[in-house]
Amino acid sequence: MDSFANRRHIIRFIIILIGLIFVVRLFILQVVDSTYKQTASNNVLRYVTQFPSRGLIYDRNGKLIVYNEAAYDLMIIPRQLKQFDTTEFCQILEIDTNYVVEAIERAKDYSVYNSSIFLKQLSAKTYAQLQEKLYKFPGFYVQARTIRKYTSKNAAHILGYVGEVNDKIIENDDYYNSGDYIGISGVEKSYEKELRGEKGVNVYLVDVHNRIKGPYANNKLDKNAKVGSNIISTIDADLQTYGEKLMQGKIGSIVALEPATGEVLAMISAPGYDPDLLVGRKRTKNYVTLMADTLKPLFNRALMAQYPPGSTFKIINALIGLQEKVLFTSSEYECRGAYYSRNFRLGCHNHRSPLNLIESIQMSCNTYYCYVFRSILDNKKYPSIRESFDKWREYLLSFGFGQYLGSDFSNELRGLVPTKQTYDRIYGERGWNSLTLISMAIGQGELGTTPLQMANMTAAIANRGYYYTPRIVKEIEGDFELDKRFNEKQYTKVDSIYFERVIEGMDLVVNGEAGSGSTARNAQIPGITVCGKTGTAENPHGEDHSIFIAFAPKDDPKIAIAVYIENGGFGSTWAAPTAKLMMEKYLNDSISVSWWEQYVLNAEINYNAKTN
After folding, report:
1. Is the per-residue pLDDT at 180 higher than 50?
2. How far apart (Å, rounded) are the C-alpha atoms in residues 185 and 411?
3. What are 411-444's pLDDT values in tens digits?
């Protein structure tokens, strides 16, 4: 009897246990596990992302530069796919069956339930043809979005471009999903969060033919997209266009800043490219073509090319010498056509001798600055050259050399100012002296500067000892504010009282009397006092690079500019007249001597030799 009772209890326990298992499983299916709920929802609901229009970009005068144009992406939800006529499908979209098979597999690998892009950026014509027959292709729908368009073919390096996100971006930022777009370079990248806006979503009921029947739950689950903020850039679109015109057929860069604010008025990297080439379905193909171009049109020379500053650097050594009190306005040095020290010789051009400080800038004497540079490094107030070299380097860093300026450009390089450890490795701690480094007296040797850094240096001189961090954005509409760093003065380590002395020399470089030895009289602008300095950077791969820095007017600077023209020879040959035209165009909105313009536009520069 007890045995029968035990069996009855066991059977009852098993029945209760099985019942509990079913209850728990049912609870998991209905409450905990959302897979089946998701499957059911996806069969009747469609979640359509509403992509916001990116913010527009204007120039400093309110001229529209970048706007949006409607485009259409064909989306796919693999879970909703059914058999369809692939021949008709391919004819409408102008694709082949291999693409269909591969794209469906990619979509399945991403997600069976969630939508992904099947084919990007359909034309309006293709979209219209497909929309009429979309009911025949279950699992597909069209999603509207926008692509970038440009009002001109200029400023590609400044504006940058927009491209599709990669896996790394998706992993690091949960805002983005596969198929989303993001700023890749330029303003589009630096101000991505401000320009992109916020995505929204619409939830729709769909029928068995995958056709939208209407909004779900009276739009209660919908979220409106928030349009991106418009940006007012600092560039002058007319000046930018003019600069790119002047640089046609040349390799190099022009950077123009407003000294009083650090705002970039124009930034030209030549050769450039049409920004429309990196928009739409042909972007990848065009990108490959541009990358293969030996002239490197995608390379932003204004921010990334590292050139020797050449003789323009003499101004910096002059300022350091004055600050260190090893140089005075009255200091004179004799030049016999070269600088000599023991068996060493560094050549100079013909000019009268001896020269004082202001005349040395006016006539760009190499010998003078060899003496100045050595007096800085051999200064007896420092225990050794290693300490004096560190001090000299500190001055350079304070002008923005050898470091990131902190601009709002994403691909700015820091240039090169060597450290004492550099020479310790080459010569040993006691194996180098001021003569070893003498090439840096005239801006050669191990120095590397970007055109942006050179323009920034020029702005610091124009301001008599300080600069504002360069920036490309003037204003962001909406709730966004510019970083406070752009409103802070960055002071050099040279006292303001010394700048007037070198500025006087820069004035004479341009405005000295005929026959006085001035090196850039061709940069004069009628009625405006231009202060400048020529430079010729040695190029081991071909003709020297032509360099010119300048600001104007002298007493109330509105523009500071740096021009580099590769293989252009002397600074006065091409860089100086190019800078003159840019400054005159900006200050007067016209050109007083038209033949100077034709001279630059018709420039014939030999680029057959390999350039650096």
Report:
1. yes
2. 8
3. 899 999 999 999 999 999 999 999 999 999 999 9
How far apart are the C-alpha atoms of 330 and 327, rounded to whole Å? Answer: 8
- SS3 label, residue 433: coil
**Termini Cα distance of the chain:** 104
Confidence (pTM)? 0.87
Angle between helix 575-588 and helix 594-601 axes, rounded to 10 deg: 130
Q: 464 is written with which tokens?
A: 């008599």
- What are the tokens at 129? 């043809």
Coil, strand, or helix at residue 298? coil
Residue 465's alpha-carbon distances to 17, 357, 382, 462, 492, in angstroms, are 86, 19, 24, 8, 6
At residue 467, the pLDDT reads 98
Residues 6+ apart with CB under 8 A from 559: 256, 257, 258, 259, 265, 551, 552, 582, 583, 586, 587
What are the φ/ψ torsions at residue 146 (nearest 5 degrees)? Answer: -125, 155
E strands present in 432-501: 466-468, 473-476, 489-491
pLDDT digits 0-9 by tens, 338-361? 999 989 999 999 999 999 999 999
Give the tokens for residue 514. 């005929």
Strand ranges, E, within 248-377: 252-258, 263-270, 338-341, 344-347
* Contacts with 445 (C-beta within 8 Å, 6 or more apart), sequence order: 308, 437, 439
Q: Are 254 and 267 in contact (CB under 8 A)?
A: yes
Compute the residue count for the chain: 612
Neighbours of 155 (CB within 10 A): 29
More confident residue, 97 or 608: 97
Token pair for 188: 């589009």
What was the pLDDT predicted at 219?
80
Mean of the per-residue pLDDT values for the chain?
91
Residue 293: is its pLDDT beyond 80?
yes
